[in-house]
C-alpha cells in the first residue's frame, strides 16, 4: 500500500499542481491586463486632450512652435499624476518642442531608446489631415512594474496554500479510490466476499459433479 | 470508458474547481487594492478633461441650462469606460443638471458618494459653483476576475481530461495496465461474466491480484472443461444441458476480447501531438489572413485557403504511402520523426513573415501529422489481433476526439493572452513533448516485413462501378469531410473574427462539434446496429448535417445561429459516422472478384482525405463570391442533396430481401 501511495501521490500532485499554477497565472494575467488597460486609457485621455488643444490652435493658424501656453498645460497635467516622468510634444521630425520636463526639450524622441518609460503616443493632425506633431505621455515603468510584481507576489501567496490544499485533497481522494479498488481486488482474489460469483459458479459445478458421476 | 479513470478525473476536476473558486475570490480582493487607486486616478482624469470642456463652453457664453448634447456626450464617455458608473454635472445647490449612468447607478448619482466618486469644480473665469462628479463602479475589480471564469473552468475541465489521458504516463505501463486489468476483471466478475482476460504485467501488487483472479478463473474454466469432457464421454444429456446453461450464464470456456495493455503506449504521444494541431484551429485562418497579400485573379478568401489546403493535401497524399514506411522503419521511430517535423513546422509557422513561408511550414506540419497518425494506427494494428482490433482502434480514435475537444478552447485562450505566434511555439513544444513521450512509452520495435500496400489501384474499377458503394463514398463520405473542414476549420473561425469574437470564444465555439460527437456517436452506432438500419442512418445524418447550415437564416452575424449550425453538424455526423464506416465494409464484401476489405477501406480513407483537402478550397472559393451565410447554405444544401441522392440510389437498387446486417458480431 505504501508503494501504491508513493506512486499515486506524486502523479496527482504534479497534475493538480500544474493546473493550479495555470489558474493562478491566468488570474494574475487578467488583473494585470485590466491594470495596464486602465493606465493606458488614462494616458490616452490625457494625450487626447492635449492633442485636441494643439489641433484647435493649429486650425486657427498658430504653428506648433508658437503655441507658448503648452509648457504650462503640460506641467499642470504632469503634476496631477505622480507616475508621470514627462509629457512631451514632439514636432513632425520627432524633436521634442515642449515638455513638462525642461531637460527633454530639443532632444530627439525615440521609443526604442526609452526603455525606462511606459509610453502612450498620440499623433496630432490639423483639420486637413496634415501631421502637426505627437503628444507623448511617459510614465515611470519601474513604478508600474513594481505594482505588477507586488500583484504577482500577492496572487502567488494566495495560490500556494490553495494549491497545496488542492494537491493534498486531490491526491488523498485519488489514493482512497485506488485503495478501495485494492481492497475489492484483494477480497475477490481471495474469494473472501460473501457474494463471490466465481465461488458461486464453482459450487454450481460441484453440484453437477455427483450427478454426472451417477 | 473505464470507470476508475472517470472517477479519478471527476475527483481531479472537483478538487480543482473548489480550489479555483477560493483562488478567484482571493484574487478579486487583491485586484480591488491594486485597481482602486488607478481607477480613482482615471476618474480624476476623466473628470478634469470633461470639466475643462464644459468650462470652455461656459466661458464662450453658453448658458448652463442650454448645453445641448451634454447628456449624450457624458453617455459616450461612460460607454467607453466600463470602470465608471456615472457622470453628473451638479449646480451649487447639489441638484443634478446633466447626467449619464449605468443601471442602478442612476439612483446613486442623485446622492453624494465620496468613497466611490471624484468631484472637480468647473473652472470658469469669474468663478463658478458647479461641480462634475464621476462615480466609480465598485464591482469593477470583481468583474475583471469574473470575466476569467469561463476560461478558467475550461482550463480546469481540460486539465482533468488531460489528467485522464496522461495518468498512464505517471503510473508507468506495467502498473497502469495492471490497475486497469484488475478494474476490468472486477467489473465483469461482479456482473457474473466469468470469461478469461488477456494477461497483464504481474510485477506490481495489482498485477498480483490480477494473476490471482486469473488463476481462480482459470481453475474454474479447467474444471468446466474436464467436467464437460466427462459428461460428453458418458452421453449424459441432462448434465450437458446444465453445463450449456452455465456456459451461457458465466461465459465459461470463453475469453474477453479487449485490446492488450500495451496498445495504450501510443495513446499519450498521439493525444499530445493531436492537441498541438488542434490548438491552432481557432486562429489559423485569421493568422493566414493577416499574412496574406493579394494575388492577381484570386479572391482573398481563396488565398487564405491555400496553406490549409496544402496541409490537408500533404496529409491525404502521404498517408497511403506512409503505412509501409512506418512498417519498415518502426512505428516508434516514425512517430518520433513525425513529432519532430511537427515541432519544426509549428515553430516555423510562428516566425514566418509571409504566405509562402507559412504554406511551407504547414506542409512540414502536415507531413509530421501524417507520420504520427499512421505510426500510431500501425502500432495499434501491430499490437492487436483481428478480434482485438476494434477495441484498440477505439482507443486510437478517442485520443484524437478528446484532443479535438480540448485543443480549440485552449488554443483560443492562449492566442488571446500570448498571441498567435506564441501559441504556435507552444504547439511546437507539445509536439516535442509527444516525441519525448513516444521515446519513453512506446517499445522500440525493429523493422517489420512489409505486408504490401493497403490500397490496390486496380480495385478502384469495381468500387466505382458499384453504384451503392460509389454513392456511399462520393455522396456521403466525401461531402461529410468537405462540410466538416469547410465549416469548423475555415468558415466559422473567419466569421467569428469578422463579428468581433475573441479567439477564446471561437475556441469554445469549436468545442460544440467534438462534444456532440463524443456524446452521441456510441448511442447512434448501437441504434443503427440494433435496428439494422445503417444505410438510412447514413442518409439521415447527411441530411441533418446539411440542413443545419440553414440555421444561419436566423442571422449569420450572430453567435447563436452559428452555434446551432455546429450543433446540427455534430448531431448529423454523430448519426452517420459509425454506420458509414460499417457500411463500407459490408458493401466491400459484396463486391465481385478479389477486392479485399482492406483495399476498400484504404480507398474509403483516401476519398475522405480528399474531401478534407477540398474543404478549404470549396469554402474559400464560395466565401469570396457569396459571403459567409450563402456559402454555408450552399455547402449544407449540397450535402443534404447528396444524402437524398444516396438514399435514392439505394432505393432504386433495393432487391426484395436486401438486408445489410450489422458487422462486428461474427458468428
Largest sheet of chain A: 4 strands, antiparallel
Principal-axis shape of chain A: rod-shaped
What are the segments of chain B in which pLDDT stays under 50 over at least 5 consecutive residues? 656-667
User: Secondary-structure element sequence of chain B?
Assistant: HHEEHEEHHHHHHHHHHHHHHHHHHHH
Helix content of chain A: 55-70%
Low-pLDDT sequence parts of chain A: none
Instruction: Strand order, main sheet of chain B: write it out.
Output: 2-1-4-3
Indicate the percent of residues in helices of chain B: over 70%
> Rg of chain A from C-alpha positions?
36 Å
Annotation field: number of helices of chain A: 4
Helix-strand category of chain B: mainly alpha
Number of helices of chain B: 23
Subunit arrangement of the protein: heterodimer
Q: Quickly give the structural class of chain A.
A: alpha+beta
- Average of the residue pLDDT scores of chain A: 84
Give a written overview of the molecule.
The complex is a heterodimer of chains A (214) and B (667). Chain A is built from four helices and four strands. Chain A is an alpha+beta fold and 214 residues long. The longest helix of chain A has 58 residues, at 2-59. Chain A is rod-shaped and about 115 Å long. Chain A starts with a helix and ends with a helix. The model of chain A has no long low-confidence stretch (mean pLDDT 84). With 667 residues, chain B is mainly alpha-helical. Chain B has 23 helices and four strands. Chain B has a four-stranded antiparallel sheet. In chain B, helix 12 runs antiparallel to helix 13 (355-383). At the A-B interface, helix 1, helix 3 and helix 4 of A face helix 1, helix 4, helix 5, helix 6 and helix 7 of B.
Amino acid at each position: 500500500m505504501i508503494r501504491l501511495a508513493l506512486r499515486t501521490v506524486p502523479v496527482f500532485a504534479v497534475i493538480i499542481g500544474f493546473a493550479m499554477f495555470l489558474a493562478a497565472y491566468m488570474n494574475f494575467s487578467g488583473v494585470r491586463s485590466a491594470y495596464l488597460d486602465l493606465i493606458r486609457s488614462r494616458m490616452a485621455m490625457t494625450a487626447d486632450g492635449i492633442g485636441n488643444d494643439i489641433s484647435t490652435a493649429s486650425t486657427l493658424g498658430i504653428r506648433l512652435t508658437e503655441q507658448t501656453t503648452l509648457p504650462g498645460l503640460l506641467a499642470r497635467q504632469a503634476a496631477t499624476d505622480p507616475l508621470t516622468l514627462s509629457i512631451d510634444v514632439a514636432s513632425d521630425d520627432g524633436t521634442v518642442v515642449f515638455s513638462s520636463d525642461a531637460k527633454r526639450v530639443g532632444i530627439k524622441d525615440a521609443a526604442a531608446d526609452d526603455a525606462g518609460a511606459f509610453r502612450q503616443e498620440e499623433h496630432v493632425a490639423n483639420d486637413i489631415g496634415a501631421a502637426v506633431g505627437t503628444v507623448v505621455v511617459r510614465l515611470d515603468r519601474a513604478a508600474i512594474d513594481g505594482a505588477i510584481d507586488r500583484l504577482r507576489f500577492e496572487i502567488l501567496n494566495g495560490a500556494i496554500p490553495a494549491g497545496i490544499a488542492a494537491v493534498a485533497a486531490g491526491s488523498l481522494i485519488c489514493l482512497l479510490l485506488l485503495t478501495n479498488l485494492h481492497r475489492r481486488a484483494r477480497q475477490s482474489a481471495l474469494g473472501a466476499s460473501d457474494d463471490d460469483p466465481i465461488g458461486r459458479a464453482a459450487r454450481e459445478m460441484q453440484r453437477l459433479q455427483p450427478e454426472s458421476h451417477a | 470508458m473505464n470507470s476508475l479513470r472517470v472517477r479519478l478525473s471527476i475527483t481531479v476536476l472537483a478538487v480543482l474547481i473548489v480550489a479555483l473558486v477560493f483562488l478567484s475570490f482571493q484574487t478579486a480582493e487583491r485586484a480591488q487594492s491594486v485597481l482602486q487607486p488607478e481607477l480613482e486616478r482615471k476618474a480624476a482624469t476623466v473628470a478634469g478633461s470633461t470639466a475643462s470642456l464644459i468650462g470652455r463652453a461656459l466661458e464662450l457664453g453658453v448658458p448652463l441650462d442650454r448645453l445641448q448634447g451634454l447628456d449624450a456626450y457624458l453617455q459616450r464617455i461612460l460607454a467607453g469606460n466600463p470602470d465608471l458608473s456615472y457622470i453628473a454635472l451638479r449646480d451649487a445647490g447639489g441638484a443634478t443638471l446633466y447626467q449619464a449612468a449605468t443601471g442602478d447607478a442612476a439612483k446613486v448619482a442623485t446622492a453624494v458618494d465620496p468613497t466611490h466618486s471624484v468631484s472637480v469644480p468647473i473652472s470658469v473665469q469669474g468663478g463658478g459653483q458647479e461641480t462634475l462628479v464621476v462615480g466609480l463602479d465598485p464591482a469593477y475589480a470583481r468583474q475583471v476576475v469574473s470575466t476569467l471564469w469561463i476560461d478558467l473552468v475550461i482550463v480546469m475541465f481540460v486539465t482533468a481530461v488531460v489528467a485522464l489521458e496522461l495518468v498512464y504516463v505517471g503510473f508507468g505501463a506495467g502498473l497502469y495496465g495492471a490497475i486497469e486489468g484488475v478494474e476490468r476483471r472486477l467489473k465483469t466478475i461482479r456482473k457474473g461474466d466469468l470469461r478469461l482476460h488477456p494477461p497483464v504485467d504481474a510485477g506490481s501488487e495489482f498485477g498480483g491480484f490480477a494473476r490471482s483472479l486469473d488463476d481462480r478463473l482459470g481453475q474454474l474454466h479447467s474444471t468446466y472443461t474436464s467436467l464437460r469432457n466427462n459428461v460428453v464421454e458418458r452421453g449424459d444429456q441432462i448434465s450437458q444441458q446444465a453445463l450449456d446453461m452455465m456456459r451461457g450464464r458465466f461465459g465459461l470456456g470463453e475469453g474477453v476480447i479487449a485490446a492488450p495493455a500495451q496498445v495504450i503506449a501510443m495513446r499519450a504521444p498521439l493525444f499530445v501531438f493531436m492537441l498541438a494541431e488542434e490548438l491552432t484551429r481557432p486562429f489559423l485562418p485569421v493568422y493566414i489572413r493577416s499574412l496574406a497579400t493579394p494575388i492577381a485573379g484570386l479572391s482573398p478568401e481563396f488565398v487564405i485557403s491555400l496553406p490549409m489546403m496544402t496541409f490537408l493535401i500533404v496529409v491525404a497524399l502521404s498517408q497511403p504511402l506512409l503505412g509501409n514506411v512506418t512498417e519498415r522503419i518502426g512505428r516508434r521511430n516514425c512517430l518520433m520523426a513525425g513529432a519532430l517535423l511537427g515541432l519544426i513546422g509549428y515553430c516555423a509557422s510562428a516566425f514566418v513573415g509571409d504566405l509562402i513561408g507559412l504554406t511551407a511550414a504547414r506542409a512540414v506540419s502536415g507531413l509530421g501529422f501524417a507520420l504520427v497518425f499512421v505510426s500510431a494506427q500501425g502500432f495499434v494494428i501491430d499490437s492487436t489481433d483481428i478480434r482485438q482490433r476494434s477495441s484498440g482502434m477505439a482507443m486510437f480514435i478517442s485520443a484524437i476526439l478528446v484532443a479535438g475537444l480540448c485543443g480549440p478552447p485552449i488554443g483560443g485562450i492562449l492566442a488571446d493572452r500570448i498571441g498567435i505566434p506564441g501559441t504556435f511555439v507552444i504547439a511546437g513544444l507539445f509536439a516535442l513533448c509527444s516525441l519525448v513521450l513516444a521515446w519513453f512509452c512506446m517499445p522500440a520495435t525493429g523493422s517489420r516485413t512489409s505486408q504490401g500496400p493497403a490500397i490496390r489501384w486496380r480495385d478502384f474499377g469495381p468500387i466505382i462501378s458499384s453504384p451503392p458503394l460509389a454513392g456511399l463514398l462520393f455522396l456521403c463520405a466525401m461531402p461529410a469531410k468537405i462540410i466538416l473542414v469547410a465549416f469548423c476549420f475555415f468558415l466559422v473561425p473567419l466569421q467569428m473574427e469578422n463579428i468581433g469574437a475573441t479567439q477564446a470564444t471561437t475556441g469554445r465555439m469549436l468545442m460544440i462539434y467534438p462534444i456532440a460527437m463524443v456524446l452521441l456517436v456510441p448511442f447512434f452506432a448501437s441504434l443503427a446496429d440494433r435496428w439494422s438500419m445503417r444505410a438510412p442512418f447514413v442518409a439521415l445524418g447527411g441530411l441533418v448535417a446539411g440542413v443545419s447550415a440553414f440555421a444561419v437564416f436566423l442571422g449569420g452575424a450572430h453567435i447563436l445561429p452559428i452555434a446551432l449550425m455546429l450543433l446540427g453538424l455534430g448531431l448529423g455526423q454523430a448519426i452517420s459516422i459509425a454506420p458509414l464506416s460499417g457500411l463500407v465494409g459490408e458493401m466491400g464484401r459484396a463486391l465481385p472478384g478479389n477486392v479485399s476489405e482492406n483495399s476498400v477501406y484504404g480507398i474509403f480513407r483516401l476519398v475522405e482525405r480528399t474531401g478534407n483537402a477540398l474543404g478549404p478550397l470549396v469554402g474559400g472559393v464560395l466565401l469570396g463570391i457569396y459571403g459567409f451565410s450563402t456559402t454555408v447554405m450552399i455547402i449544407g444544401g449540397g450535402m443534404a442533396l447528396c444524402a437524398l441522392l444516396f438514399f435514392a440510389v439505394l432505393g432504386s437498387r433495393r432487391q426484395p430481401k436486401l438486408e445489410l446486417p450489422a458487422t462486428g458480431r461474427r458468428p
